[in-house]
Design brief:
The mean pLDDT is 89. 43% of the residues lie in helices and 16% in strands. It starts with a helix and ends in a 26-residue tail after the last helix. The chain folds into three domains: 2-130, no CATH class; 134-191, no CATH class; 211-296, Endonuclease, Chain A, CATH 3.40.960.10. Strand 9, helix 12 and strand 10 form a beta-alpha-beta unit. It has helices at 2-11, 18-23, 28-36, 57-68, 76-83, 117-120, 132-141, 146-158, 164-172, 180-191, 197-207, 251-266, 276-281, 283-296, and strands at 15-17, 41-44, 47-49, 73-74, 93-98, 109-114, 216-223, 226-234, 239-244, 270-275. The strands form three sheets. A four-stranded mixed beta sheet has the order 7-8-9-10, sandwiched between helices. Strands 1-3-2 form a three-stranded antiparallel beta sheet, sandwiched between helices. Helix 7 (132-141) packs antiparallel against helix 8 (146-158), helix 7 (132-141) crosses helix 9 (164-172) and helix 9 (164-172) packs antiparallel against helix 10 (180-191). The radius of gyration is 27 Å and the shape is elongated. By secondary structure, the chain is of the alpha+beta class.
């Protein structure tokens, strides 16, 4: 009893349920005595911390899982926190329980219900949590917009937590999910090398919407023994399109970008650089510039307007040389 009890405490960061305590040989009176003497304290009804002092994050997560009952798992933003999909702890703890369960409200937690939580829960990781692909698709399903959904997919693959192929298989297993056709196209783009929401928006709103040729993504080049990766390369025109997701750049970063662009010029590449505002608010202007450079460099793309008033398709007049 002593060994198994010690193992349980270590595994659950010294948080236990009343049911577990009784199953390991403690009597109801012994539990009550520990609570009255403040050796233990209640975190939730029927869930106790067996130590004094502040509860750490993992102890809080264990307490929420134990309060939710058997087959419960941390999910959504909380599972994302544990697997490294987000960098900050979720403000509330997200849990998912079987669909036929109706647990009482849990302080500081949101409880979701699912008919497939058993298959969605990782078989080994503790505290219990949903698998990476299930976590990503839960967040996609809860997104308010397609852009938010874009972000979860690209972040998961960009951080090498999963692959586009695995997410595609998990998507096929979901009976109901919004934007299914769009998500499949996004996963194709992510699998081809788009690593961020900005890159996906460039593909959708600049390239694809205006009929521009598809660039090669994340292309490795070597300039003066230094390896670099280009966000987008139009190889025939020797044109690189670089994307910067930061709204504001530090002076040091601007100099780094300038040195990078100069290095591209040494390698014979023309570089166009755009930020989030350019791609999201002025995609037609960006497409026009890219099309003009492709045309000047001999690529002659068969571009199209995305809407009435779109400037794409108006030929650029090359500057005259003396």
């Amino acid at each position: 009893m002593h060994d198994s009890w010690s193992e349980l405490l270590d595994r659950q960061r010294h948080v236990v349920s009343r049911r577990q305590a009784l199953a390991h040989g403690l009597t109801a009176d012994a539990v009550e005595n520990r609570l009255r003497s403040s050796t233990w304290r209640a975190v939730h009804r029927g869930v106790y911390a067996t130590f004094t002092g502040d509860l750490g994050r993992e102890s809080l997560l264990w307490a929420a899982v134990l309060r939710a009952g058997s087959d419960a798992a941390l999910s959504h933003q909380t599972a994302a926190e544990l697997i490294g999909l987000t960098d900050m702890p979720s403000q509330v703890i997200h849990l998912t329980v079987p669909r036929d369960r109706h647990p009482e409200p849990i302080r500081g937690a949101i409880v979701h219900r699912s008919g497939r939580i058993g298959a969605a829960t990782h078989p080994a990781q503790l505290p219990p949590r949903t698998r990476v692909e299930e976590t990503v698709l839960d967040l996609v399903q809860a997104s308010d917009s397609l852009d938010d959904a874009y972000g979860w997919l690209s972040r998961a693959v960009g951080r090498r937590l999963t692959t586009a192929a695995r997410l595609r298989r998990a998507l096929d297993d979901r009976a109901k999910i919004p934007w299914r056709a769009d998500l499949k196209m996004i996963l194709s783009d992510v699998g081809a090398g788009a690593h961020s929401l900005l890159e996906l928006r460039y593909i959708r709103d600049v390239e694809r919407a205006h009929g521009l040729p598809a660039a090669r993504r994340q292309v490795k080049i070597v300039v003066k023994s230094r390896t670099r990766y280009l966000d987008n390369l139009y190889a025939r025109a020797r044109l690189a399109v670089e994307l910067d997701g930061q709204l504001a750049h530090a002076v040091e970063q601007r100099w780094a970008d300038m040195r990078r662009d100069n290095a591209h010029a040494v390698a014979g590449l023309t570089t166009l650089r755009y930020n989030w505002t350019d791609v999201t608010l002025r995609p037609c202007e960006v497409a026009q510039q890219v099309a003009d450079v492709l045309r000047v460099r001999g690529a002659a793309p068969a571009v199209r307007r995305c809407s009435v008033g779109c400037p794409v398709g108006v030929a650029l007049t090359p500057p005259r040389t003396a």
